[in-house]
TrEMBL record:
The keyword Electron transport does not apply. One of its GO terms (molecular function) is aldehyde dehydrogenase (NAD+) activity. GO terms for biological process: carboxylic acid metabolic process. PROSITE patterns: ALDEHYDE_DEHYDR_CYS (PS00070), ALDEHYDE_DEHYDR_GLU (PS00687). Residues 65-527 form the Aldehyde dehydrogenase domain. It comes from Solanum stoloniferum. It comes from the Eukaryota. This is Aldehyde dehydrogenase domain-containing protein.
Amino acid sequence: MAARRLSSLLSRSLHLPSASASASLGRSHGVARHINRFSTAAAVEELITPPVQVNHTKLLINGQFVDAASGKTFPTLDPRTGEVIANVAEGDLEDVNRAVAAARKAFDEGPWPKMSAYERSRIMLKFADLVEKHNDEIAALETWDNGKPYLQAAQAEVPSFVRLFRYYAGWADKIHGLTIPADGPHHVQTLHEPIGVAGQIIPWNFPLLMMAWKVGPALACGNTIVLKTAEQTPLTALYVANLFHEAGLPPGVLNIVSGFGPTAGAALASHMDVDKLAFTGSTETGQTVLQLAAKSNLKPVTLELGGKSPFIICEDADIDHAVELAHFALFFNQGQCCCAGSRTYVHERVYDEFVEKAKARAMRRVVGDPFKKGVEQGPQIDSEQFKKILRYIREGRDSSATLECGGDRIGSKGYFIQPTVFSNVQEDMSIAQDEIFGPVQCVFKFKDIGEVIKRANNTRYGLAAGVFTKNIDTANTLTRGLRAGTVWINCYDIFDAGIPFGGYKMSGTGREKGIYSLNNYLQVKAVVTPLKNPAWI
């Protein structure tokens, strides 16, 4: 399965580089740090020209690519350099109104909800085939706009995108209600109906995958959509949307508005003619989205928000394996992952050994142009995130935590940050409490299982958790004790299409992926009919 390939491929990509690469990319102090600055900066400056052209920069409304009503555009930047890739149409309230009107007409009058579920699935399958055909171009565009390693995009994320749409295409003709026995002479059935116009707001860290997580189930259920992309990464959604219409998607079924949160995002969240809202992003923005939805037409909202996920390494762990998995859990996607294992709890008996090996692994991590072979980590998404991460690193340095390695930017161009490891982290530190969303590993020490469960749960978040142990009883105790939507045992970031994903507490409401996500886009209607002289009840 492509989603399983996501984890296995990326785990393989984390294997140690050559000795020469390790030496040139050292992140310790003194001479090694000087070598790192010289060689890495040089590598970053020699950038590969992305093998793809930007052809779609306008809004998609009612099947047509159009300019924003205001005529405004905004730049989308290459995070390797901070330079402009393209200028993209900047949608705002008027454009959201046009997109919602197109989606409403497509739902009320168009062929999509009236089409047989089998026909809808055929269009979704044809779309998946087209995306697969254009895999390399789409991956290159994703890497260029986002900064993630090309290998990750081309061999994991685009195939996972395809797998997700095939998965949901398979669900389209298997959605049905129930026949319910009544106490008296009545025939009772439930209908599972599409909810209507779905507003969807996706983040910048996984633009393609988050689009699939939302658009796939909404279309399978027969809804129409207005999708707002993140202003940092608008390009791949527009590219694949063009393929959707090539596959036969009727006009107005999928509309895409690029723009900013306070304008386009707020307009979509508060729109009176949007029937359902789905949002992925920060917890703070999620609270605003929920308020806007409630104050408008009380539309139902699903939220996939932030996290500060614990990764617990027990005393019986194979330390070398645990170091590699904990490294992957945190540094994957430049640390820009809502479920990153950003609180690494290590049993006191193996703590010192783990810290030394985690430091060494981080110092071997290859940072550079994400289009180059062997690069494990590209730049952060933009200057705002770059500065935020460096601020948290300064706060960690100023606390009593120990900076084991990293802590600085790499080079003078773009948004590259050294893989950073802190040990002796305490629960009251900002780096322990807040979602940093960057390549900063925080290592804590614990004594026993009861203690670590309490500490792991002592957070406003509850998105995910990881457990590393050989003992099934320990694994079971932790699995049931941790308040998180997903618990990975001796693995991390397994994202099969059928596995539900979502959080406890302030990490969100509802679930995405799998059968559970279909409920987000369906209404349940009970139909009761009297029976006259029934042969049976």
